[in-house]
Amino acid sequence: MSATTQAQQSGRKAAQSPALRVMARGGLVARGIIYMLVGALALRIAFGDHSAQADRGGALQTVAQAPFGKVLLWILAAGFAGLAAWRFAEAIYGQAGPDGRKATKRVSSAARGVFYAVVCATTVSLAVGSGGPKSSDAKSKDATGRAMHDVPGGRWIVLIVGIALIGAGIGIAYRALSKKFLKKLNTAQMTPRTRKVVEALGMTGRTARGVVYAAAGALFAYAAITFDPGKAKGVDGTLRSFAGTPAGPWLLVAIALGLITFGVYSCAEARYRRVTPG
Predict the structure, then answer these.
(1) Would you state the pLDDT for residue 91?
(2) How far is CA 92 from the centre of its chain?
(3) Would you say residue 232 has pLDDT above 70?
(4) For tag attachment on the chain, is the N or C end more exposed, with fewer CB atoms within 10 Å?
């Protein structure tokens, strides 16, 4: 047996090991915790606390300020590292399921692996005291401004990003309402009552997540159309924009509760998700 074949077999064995499954499930719980905190911070904004920062950075800062905050940050960082490792394994060996080896699935997993690796790094940075992540609004405005002023055709790139986010949000909401997310879960392990609860959590939480994506995309597109980088918003600014609609703060309350619901669903997903690559 060649060294290359042995390496491939060892890699596949590691990707399908119980350890990686535990890491992936722990990561899904960490993701759920962040979403629940973002939703809770959005509720505070809806009820008048405008100092709250309702995004991942604000959620991590909230954890850091809690008792044993640094310990909790390290636990979250380990969870995000697990998510990154799982997604990279999927990129190499394919996702679970009959169509998991498609190129689009592998690319999606690779992109998510990079994203969670960055989230892990920012969480570690905050845990060691070398500074937390910038607010999502600041990052969005900086990136949009650089794209528009420093990159040829940058305005159109921002517009394309906005349209892509709108499409992603609509897709997330569609898959939520059509219950397509259940295909990734071991529903056979659920009791009928548990399945109904998980369905309700997934439909509600995922739809709220899709609405946030689509709204953020609309703001990016508006920034491109008006040639004003300041119009681009991150998660925090996007959530605040819901309070400025004719529905007032109650639309923000509904979205915030939806994000909290998605966080709870993510914890349920940690129990029932098929996480073995390939």
Answers:
(1) 92
(2) 21
(3) yes
(4) N
- For residue 189, the model assigns a pLDDT of 94
Query: What phi and psi values does residue 65 have, to the nearest 5 degrees?
Result: -85, -5
Distance CA 212, CA 204 (A): 13
Distances (CA, A) of 118 to 77, 88, 108, 112, 191: 10, 13, 16, 10, 37
Alpha-carbon span 82 to 168, nearest angstrom: 24
Quote the tokens at residue 226.
């008006």
